[in-house]
Amino acid sequence: MKPYLYSQFLNGPHQALFTLLIFILGIHLGATPLQLTVMACLKPITSFFSFYLSMWIVGRPQKIRVYLILNALLGTIPCFFYPLIDNIWYYIGTYALYMVTMRAIHPAWMEILKQESDMKELGRLSSWGNFIYYGINMVVPVLFSFLMDQYGINWKYLFIVTSLWQLLNLFVIASVQIKEDVNPCNVQFEFLKPLKKGWKVLKEKPHLVHYLLLFFLGGAGIIGIYPILPIFFKEELHLNTTKIALAFSCCRGITFLTTSRLWASILERTSIYFLNTIVNGLTCLFFGCIIASFGGIHWLLIAYLFYGAMQAGCELSWNVSGPLFSGEEESTLYSSLNLALVGIRGCLCPIFGYALYQCSSITTVFAIGLALSIIGVMYGLWLNERYKTPVREVAI
Q1: Which residues neighbour 382 within 8 Å (Cβ) at sequence distance 6 or greater?
Q2: Cα–Cα dist 321/390, whole Å
Q3: H or E stretch at 324
Q4: Around Cβ 146, how many Cβ atoms within 10 Å?
Q5: Which of 110, 189, 351, 381 is deepest in the core (most CB within 10 A)?
Q6: 306-344 pLDDT per residue, tens
Q7: Which CATH number fits the domain 2-173+191-395, given the four candidates 1.20.1250.20, 1.10.3720.10, 3.30.930.10, 2.130.10.10?
Q8: Angle at CA 324, nearest 5°, toward 223 and 304?
Q9: Measured between alpha carbons, how far apart are the two ends of the chain, in Å?
Q10: What is the pTM of this model?
Q11: pLDDT at 108
Q12: Rounded CA gap, 193 and 314, in Å?
């Protein structure tokens, strides 16, 4: 479906620049450890707020277009004030708002794709969308970091450029065709209603609960190290923004792009549980290499090669889980449950990771992340053995 792919292309540069913001604040603006911890928590925490925001379209497919437009505006307009405001907390706040909007549009786009595609085609479209997005994320951060480090270009004006580019997405959204005659999930927009409806779904589908726990375990270690990565890069490895972008964006992007199609093929042949098991195995390799990077930056580059492959599989699993487990029902509630769980994980893991760092060392935090990933591998293997029936059939 072309509008989805165009949207990924237009959203990519702005989101790529936002991935660098935590390093910009830490290296160029001298953000405090508290500010870095808060910012590291925000990306997953915003998933919880996105869960409630996405409830506005559950049972209201006719509102999806307006919903996407509002999210596009909310995620970009605050960036136009960057040159006028010199406050780290303002930048952190705009980052939080942007991440809420980017997470919140996920259920809407997945519902649009589900209306137009079967599960096999949806997986392929999702994979192509990720391919486009990470292709941009592989190039843009390195380019922008080079411009900042070598030519002193103000990063604030780069945000204005990418904001203008993303606003072109409004024309793409206006062209989207949305079916309104789907089987809706009747959820009223009240604080407890979505939670009650979500709890009912979880009780009815234990295999979905297992999947969410597997997804939680797989990312807990990664989320837990977010607050200390800027400290690790700056104080332990002594990297500038360009070198960070080379590892964090370029190396990660290379393997993301080269494995995206492979992940779609794996999902067609096996269960989503086994796919996540492979993802968790790659996370183990990432942690092993990042621990080894104390001995040389080349290990950091290898670590992010594994990270890119891992994230490609994780993104595909994330994107298709809602449509897959929802069967013939509307998928937005199911996708939103994943948002809520990721939000809960984001509230806990970064704080725990930073507290552990304060009490011990960076190596200890990395080692515990590795242990959680190993547990995720074993749990995934057990789930794959338990649910031998193809997941698509179980979900329906």
Answers
A1: none
A2: 13
A3: helix 297-326
A4: 15
A5: 110
A6: 999 998 898 888 778 777 777 667 666 676 677 677 777
A7: 1.20.1250.20
A8: 30
A9: 24
A10: 0.72
A11: 77
A12: 29
Amino acid identity of residue 105, one-letter, is I
pLDDT tens digit sequence for 226-280: 888 888 887 888 888 888 888 877 888 888 888 877 888 888 888 888 999 999 9
Residue type, 335: S
**How far apart are alpha carbons 142 and 52 in whole angstroms?**
34
Q: Whole-angstrom Cα distance, residue 237 to residue 194?
A: 45
CA distance 329 to 174: 25
- Between 91 and 45, whose confidence is greater? 91
Q: How many CB atoms lie within 10 A of CB 267?
A: 25
The secondary element (H helix, E strand) that includes residue 166 is: helix 155-167
pLDDT band at 396; cut points 50, 70, 90: very low
The set of residues, in sequence order, having a beta carbon less than 8 Å from that of 381 and lying 6+ positions away, is: 274, 277
> Across the chain, how many H-helices and E-strands are there?
17, 0
Angle in degrees, 0-180, between the axes of helices 88-116 and 33-54, rounded to the nearest 10: 30
Instruction: Check: CB of residue 48 under 8 Å from CB of residue 343.
Output: yes
**In the chain, where the domains are located:** 2-173+191-395
Provide the 3-class DSSP secondary structure of residue 177: coil
Residue 62, Cβ density class (10 Å: 0-12 exposed, 13-18 middle, ≥19 buried): exposed
Residue ranges of alpha helices (H) inside 28-87 are 33-54, 64-76
CB 353 within 8 A of CB 220: no
Do 155 and 35 meet the contact criterion of CB atoms below 8 Å apart? no
H or E stretch including 271? none
Cβ(201)–Cβ(334) below 8 Å: yes
Nearest to 256 by CA among 370, 133, 159: 133
Q: Which two tokens stand for residue 27?
A: 């290296």
Q: Which long-range contacts (CB under 8 A, 24 or more apart) does 5-9 make?
A: 5/125, 5/128, 5/129, 5/132, 6/169, 6/172, 7/109, 7/169, 7/172, 7/173, 8/129, 8/130, 8/132, 8/133, 9/132, 9/133, 9/136
Q: What's 178's DSSP letter? A: -
Asked whether the beta carbons of 67 and 56 are under 8 A apart, the reply is yes
* 3 state DSSP class of 197: helix
